[in-house]
Amino acid sequence: MSTPLSPTAREIQEQIESNTSAVDHFSSFAGHRQHMTALALRDVAPEAGLRLCILGAGNCYDVDLVKLASSYREIHLVDVDPAALARARQPLGADAGAKVFSHAPLDLSGLFDRLDRWARLEVEPQELLGHAAEASAQIARSLPGPFDVVISACLLSQIQLAIYNVLSAAHPLFDAVRHVANLTHLRTLAALMAPAGRAFFATDVASNDLFPLAEVREQSDLRPLLATLVRSGSVVFAVSPDLLTWTAREDPVVQRAVEVSEPVDAWLWQNGPDRLFLVYALELRARAKEARLPTLT
Fold this sequence. Notes:
Number of domains: 1
Structural class: alpha/beta
Order of helices and strands: HHEHEHHEHHEHHEHHHEEE
Low-confidence stretches: 291-297
CATH architecture: 3-Layer(aba) Sandwich
Helix content: 40-55%
């Protein structure tokens, strides 16, 4: 008889199964893929020889890898699911494939080896307080950065969902761990950026379960809708733009390292036949070199 999976291990397995189940729905990602690819190519000159890192790459249905490979010297894909990254590389020709590198499995939350223990309240305050610094530094050491452009591809919502499923909103540490996850992710983006680098943080923030998104398909700029839904509370608060920009502003490490924009884009993501999401993106720009994140060992 096999040993039952822990709650966190089940969350990882469900994400892997979700990647597998999405294989037949490449075409439904077309609009989402167009927006994400445009973000990755914003102000990128092919002759500059830049390096790109995509966090939470999965099957890479979020981006057009071939198009990106024509503008970047290197593309580094990072995910907890090695099989998904292998599938993403399969369609690439020799020229594009030579530029694409896979890094998996890598836990980009730094939580998956401790979340079950935290759920049992087996954690000291100092571990919680130090997690963002420790985990972001460890992730940065695990990757061949720094990178000129870093993309967070709708990853933080998956991390937050795992926290919700393992802890539940009633858990006494739920709010603290949710904040730690956001802070860790922002510090990770900052730690991976080159001195003159940029990052784009993209996340799904609302679904057709929260709002009738199908009725707004024809609108081109959905940032006004995003603002309306944020004001009305019709979004997933843990990944709302107000919360993320507040976290970046209030954390002295992130605030010293990067400038965070207002949402630079918002769009609809058709994920398979039934699920429709509202996605937005923030841009993070590295501050002057002397204000960069210190190297942590």
